[in-house]
Amino acid sequence: MSHSKASTDFLRNTEHAKWHDETLWMIREKRDLASQKVPEWENLRTLASSIKEHVLSNLDQLLLEFEANATKNGIQVHWAKDAQEHNQIVLDILKKQSCAQVVKSKSILTEECHLNPFLEKNGIEVIDTDLGERIVQFLHQPPSHIVLPAIHLKKRDISELFHQKLQTEKGNEDPYYLTQAARTHLREKFLKAKVAITGVNFGIAETGEFVVCTNEGNADMGVHLADVHIACMGIEKLIPRRNDLGVFLRLLARSATGQAITNYTSHFRGPEKGKQIHLILVDNGRTEQLGREKFRNSLKCIRCGACMNTCPIYRRSGGFSYQSTVPGPIGSILSPGLDLKKYSSLPFASTLCGSCTDVCPVKINIHEQLYEWRQEITKANPNHAEILSMKLASGIFKSPLAYRISGILMRKLIKNLPDSLIYNPWNVWGKGRKLPETPQESFRNWYLNHRNNEQ
Amino acid sequence: MEQSQPNVGLFIPCYVDQFYPQVGKATLEILEKLNCKVSYPLDQTCCGQPLANSGYERETKESCQQFLNSFLKFDYIVAPTGSCVHHIKERYSKILNAPELQPSLNSKIFELTEFLHDILKVELQGTFRHKIGYHASCHALRGLRLSKSSEVNTAPFDKVKSLFEKVEGLEWSQLQRSDECCGFGGTFSVKEEAISLSMGKDRLADHHEAGTEILTATDMSCLMHLKGLADKKQSTLPIMHLAEIINQIIS
């Protein structure tokens, strides 16, 4: 389904669509307030962008340094070239531990690799422990936002869901009550789990440690109770030094939710005695993206979600309309690199307003990359009717005479045709908007009559 | 004074030429009143942005060349649009693979209010007794940086509004969302019709609540979309391009 079709469906429920827009706009406003409290905000963005530039230019060396230091710390490092290899590595570790139930905190990478269905097919129960993720997991839905996975749902929906799944009182929508019910439910899962999976926000090459940022403490709870910690990390999540970390931590939570910092910022350097840490470094198309000059700095993304909250299209179409793991503006420049045909409508789901680029804490030129993907998509998936009309337009624009004649014809047509013909179902503009009134003469004609002395 | 009279090439976007000749006239008259020598090259067509934004940039090489042939001879190129100016300034040298063009594009081409602010350094004097709703068109705002966007935390500036600081009676509407896109976006307006309409309606509602009497912008394309929506709902919302307002003030 194209993004346009999916967004039309989303907007049918006008009340819900309005609420969705306003809720995400509120988060954008929180981000504004939080970022305005940091006088050096713009310098931080520039610095973060430059550090990531350095990382992308030296990724091979930094990854080796990271692997060597992590190994020295007692972390077992694995390399996965794609989603399949990643999933298999996780399964092998779980089998070795004879583990049939695993707790997982939020990781967009494991969503990208479709880890949950793979493990479930292999007889392993996965419990997402992030509250929002647990909610969408109950509903067999993917997250609709990378930071706020269940933002498409209202309190009422969650109350009903918990009534069914966790036997809470019917109709009780009190957030505290519902959260307590989820806590009790998850506590039991935490206590039983022998293996815990987390994502990684930052890997530090210099020290071989990695950092996980969460608000609910579920990553720490899972990891500290389990014997084995599996951390899944995209290779672009690297930063060179621990000193660089502060730059990113100051930007991440403020950009994401307007908090100064996430409630938990946990550093993992090595396993406790008798326990194991496995770190899986995943490529899954990242090296290929790194090789695309126009698109490589999309890999600077720290997954804050600010571009989604600010995007007037995302706010009015919801995360599912993108049908990709990472939705919104950043998803629309990452996903075509994974499957150009499947995601071909995403770079067109934008007015190129540029708000995403201005809000991005690592200064990714998102809207310019949307424009560049459009150029690639029309080459790779030729639409012959569209090419014909573009060639026609191109012929008109390069010839002043053809341009003048077509302009005269167009104005005459619009002026003289009956409304029933102009506002027909094929005129998409005319369904919700009037056409401008046609003037007697073009500016050019007026100019010729009133100013031009040259001809 | 004759020697310092800037030689300006007037670029009128294709849809303004065809549908909004009064905006072209106002632009021309403003520049003439401000002592510019203005010519409108008769062989100009379209900047090519509609094709390029649709993914067919490669089909626009000849129209880019056509534009440059018509305009590079002038000291300045001025147009009543942020969007087309942004496209020409930011993309032509890449489309034509001619980086040597960039310095002359940077120093020559201007959106109208940008030209008044940066080059002519105009301070408008006069009266305009209305509450004006200013729609910050995205390509003028975040493309040409005519004012500070709400996302960026730098010192506030607004080249457009600062032109009007000494104009008596003029009041700006205070919007809930100062610079959200109107949803036009060229072919986006038909490719993503539902969202385009929804965005436009939200902008109109914001202006309605703020008490906007006249809606204005640097770009007629945003106004065409918003006016088309308002007309369909049979609501009367007067729109004027900034050029029309400025021309009234200095007449």
From TrEMBL, chain A:
Report whether rRNA processing shows up as a keyword of the record.
no
The positions making up the signal sequence are none
Q: Which GO terms describe its molecular function?
A: 4 iron, 4 sulfur cluster binding; metal ion binding
Q: What keyword terms does UniProt attach to this protein?
A: 4Fe-4S, Iron, Iron-sulfur, Metal-binding
Q: What is the lineage of its organism?
A: Bacteria, Pseudomonadati, Bacteroidota, Cytophagia, Cytophagales
Q: Mention one GO biological process in which this protein takes part, according to its record.
A: lactate metabolic process
Which ranges carry the 4Fe-4S ferredoxin-type domain? 291-312
Record-linked Pfam families: Fer4_8, LUD_dom
Name-wise, this protein is L-lactate dehydrogenase complex protein LldF
Its transmembrane ranges are none
TrEMBL record, chain B:
Any single GO molecular-function term of the entry would be: oxidoreductase activity
Its name, as the record gives it, is L-lactate dehydrogenase complex protein LldE
UniProt cross-references to PANTHER family, sorted A to Z: LACTATE UTILIZATION PROTEIN A (PTHR30296:SF0), UNCHARACTERIZED PROTEIN YKGE (PTHR30296)
Which segments constitute the Cysteine-rich domain?
A: 8-89, 133-227
Phylogenetic lineage? Bacteria, Pseudomonadati, Bacteroidota, Cytophagia, Cytophagales
Under the heading Pfam families, the entry gives:
CCG (PF02754)
Q: From which residue to which does any coiled coil extend?
A: none
Its cellular-component GO annotations read: cytosol
